[in-house]
Amino acid sequence: MSANDRHLWPYPIRYGQTDTHETDVLILGGGIAGVWAAISARRTGARVAIMEKADTRRSGAGGTGVDHWGYAADNPCSTITPEEMTRALVDNHFGYRSGISTYILASSAYETLLELESMGGKVRDTEGEFKGAPFRDDKTKLLFAYDYDSRYCIRVWGANFKPLLHRQCRRLGVELLDRTTATALLTEDGEHGARVVGAMGINCHTGAFVVVRAKAVILSTNRPQRIFTFSSEHRGAAAHRGGSNVGNGYAMAWRIGAEFTLMEKTIRSPFASPYSYPTYGTGNALNTWYPCTIVDANNKEVPWVDCNGLVLATVEERCHPAAGQKFFLMGGGNASQPHPGLKQYAGPKLIPDLEERMRKGEFTPPFYADLTSMPWYERKAIWGLMVGQEGRTRVPIVQTYEASGFDPSKDMLQTYDFLRGQGMREFMMPQERTFGEIGVAGGLVTDWDLMSNIPGLFGAGDLLFGSQDHVNAATTGRYAGARAALYARGAGLGKLGAAQIESEKNRALAPLAEMPDSIDWKELNFGVARVMQNYCAELKNEELLSLAETWLADLEQNEVRKVFAGNPHQLMRALDVMDILTCAQMIVHASKARRASSEVLSFSRLDYPENDPAEWHKYIVIRQDQPGRVHTSGRPLGFWGPYQPNYGPRHAENLAAMQAGPAPAMP
Prior knowledge:
Blueprint: E1 18-22, E2 25-28, H1 32-43, E3 48-51, E4 68-69, H2 82-92, H3 99-118, E5 143-144, E6 154-155, H4 161-172, E7 175-177, E8 180-187, E9 196-203, E10 209-213, E11 216-219, H5 232-235, H6 248-256, E12 260-261, E13 267-268, E14 294-295, E15 304-305, E16 311-312, E17 349-350, H7 354-359, E18 368-369, H8 376-389, H9 394-403, E19 413-414, E20 433-434, E21 443-444, E22 457-459, H10 470-489, H11 498-509, H12 521-535, E23 539-540, H13 542-559, H14 568-593, E24 604-605, E25 618-626, E26 629-636, H15 643-659
Helix pairs in contact: 1-4, 1-10, 2-3, 3-10, 6-14, 8-9, 10-15, 12-13, 12-14, 13-14
């Protein structure tokens, strides 16, 4: 920022200043996982601080709301046990989903929701708005979604959940370092792979350098995005999740030697395309709009079928398991994928041959989501709760559409299916891929304490390997906060390494120096995406991946130094893209390590074409055993061992510690 432009920046500039803090448990990322971790850690008696690059009141992928509380097998109406739910979810991903985080989710989702209810969250139909609806339990007044028999997914009024959690953090005396982006972890004496003793960052308003000393650190930042595609100007958004979710925690942990797995898994996705449509604003019947009726341009209804292919005659039948099926997974499971053994989890869906029948003239596009013909309670639940409380739809969809005159009792909403020749889940270009914007993805490897191989470094939320969704973030955050606080009780404040701090300060502030050949952070992001499109897209081999390594190293050595930031916000964006570059390198390392193709991981190697050979039914684990040297190992599927014997004692210890914690610090 030039001297003439300083008056345009609304905050005091403090480049070079170092702000220091000290705490017991430091949480990096103040999204859903982060605030839950802070609350539980504080309840155990630990001093707690959150470092969040945005505003904790609404930050993170789930900060703007949530419409359903899924996989709550511990709720009193559920007919499924936590172990059954965990096994179903892990099996549904062919073993490539974390049994640790999934069991924590299934065993404590309702328990966590009750705690949220005690903070003021609305989770029951106390006014009787849905009295008489088949998904309402009259005794508990809970509302359920998807499978009305098994009743494990609870509809909630979640638009204000994040502000309630933020208020609880403040009430308990959590130190909130908002508008401060974490850039690096501190290790004892600055040694690679040593115990974590804090973190460093940059204030996004003032540019001041921040050092926080801590006994334990919880990473609750989100997944990498913008790895393969970047199109902020084209569609007004560069990613499916919030623009600040770029995998900072991945990069920070990788640099000090933490272990990661499933990093080779990337998928084609419409969310990675600049041509994608507004999220959940297209009337699709897959998830948020489930089980909406779909009609064609002639008002002809598209049939629904169960997992056996039998046509369902009524709307009500779409919400019950098929004959002989105990339950189905929300979203229908992976039954659309050509793999055996998943039929038992597949839910009702639209006829799978709709495209073929459309081409034969049986159905005429465009197609519409027809809420007008749905029972009143389904229409009200879909539009008023599922779409109305979901963070990505409450304002851009419900409020915007209603302001334009849309009335779900009178109007139908175009689904956009087949407008470009294929359905909503259409095939994208091979390079239009995503690593972690949707679904189960790679991430940090932890033990049952949710601690990584680096002592004192814990993980929570979507940063954990094989984990996903809002409730997973809430439950693992709550669990990790207690485990980290208990760890901190027996850990002293470690010795800081002066050289490590000075080196990171120089790196983090380097983009402030403008050069004749300076580039914008967006140019670097475009460059990373182009390399990944060219050399690490759908088809891979050793030569392509080696070229990817070469080009990414070239960007790191020759282009990163050119990135110029004119103010603290641009500095944050520049550092974000440097972390995106690091995450891209991690993906390439993992892709080179898996020497077999895998249909279940959407992973294809031309030089190793056999799909999912038995000897490669394993997790590929990567880490830097020293800076610049990657160590690769394997772990068997299900390496986490039995569920309840590992979870039960820890969970009991967590609850006892939280109940014995301090009185609230604020009224």
